[in-house]
Write a structure and sequence with these properties.
Elements lengths: L1 E3 L4 H19 L8 H9 L4 E9 L5 E10 L6 E8 L5 H16 L4 E8 L19 H8 L3 E12 L13 E7 L7 H14 L14 H13 L2 E10 L4 E10 L5 E9 L8 H16 L5 E7 L3 H10 L2 E12 L1
Parallel strand pairs: 4-5, 10-11
Antiparallel strand pairs: 1-2, 2-3, 3-4, 5-12, 6-11, 6-12, 7-8, 8-9, 9-10
Amino acid sequence: MQIIDHADRALAAEISELQTRSLQAVLGHADFGHFPHEIIALLNDTSTAQNYFVLHRDADDVLRGAAQVTLDGGKNAHIANVDFITDPECDPIAVLEALRPGVEKLTGSRTSVTWWVYSPLVADGLAPQSGDLPVEKTAITQWLSDHGFTLIQTESASTLHVDNHRAEYTVAAGYALKRWVGPAPEEYVDDVALLCSRLATDAPTGGVEFAHDPWDAERVRSKEEALRQARREHVWTVAFTEDGAPAGYTFLVYPEDGGDFAFQHGTLVLSEHRGHGLGLAMKLANLAQLREVAPHIKRIHTWNASENEWMLRINEQLGSHPTSVLGAWERKA
């Protein structure tokens, strides 16, 4: 077992290759993996959290499992998140047992530790505490349950094929949309900081407890720099009231030099501005912008809490369809 907080190109390539094989076995695609340079950038980015990888190798020094451990900072320093991959040719439970000591060493002081596990869509399975989207019962979910973890929330992972999305949109009276690609224009960076501050507390989080963790302009610029280092472009649409107050935002991220896919990152309409169709309008405007600047993108992946009916309806209107389920398994100290 090895714990790392940085990686050279060769090690990052090993992790990336294992991610590809693991995700292909579970989901049938590897879009959710990382390119080697993205893994290097991920470990270097400490703007909002510290990331580590716990690695397990077999007797022949072949990488068989990896757990990405994310230790949140700021006012959420009690939270840790774990994403793991296992070699599809190996017993996953044996790999998890090999990874567990390293994960527990990193997360031992955290009072909320959540492991994230993908599942295919199932009609009948394990139900979460929050929401109604079940996950498949497997040896891995049993292992998590045996170690004190509870399925507190599920997220619907959906895919939108860009050529199939609706194009027309209208913006409610009293609001206007601003669009840009890359770092926020200087006149809007404080507005982006305010909107990002509200995401953790305004969006559904199931049983996971997040403290209000304010963003400022410096934190926004740090996150933008992390995306630049990872060679990921970001495309923004932000809604403003007619007097210039920020009302909501959405942004997409895609790899600059590989892949024909993009990821929907944060989308939020502030609670005091809901009910005006801003969520749908912002997403449609941003999709139009994406097609202008990155016409090679064929599909967009997004994740939404299963109880977030408002956003799920919007994604359905856009043309997204569910492809898998992401389960949040939490253990509290």
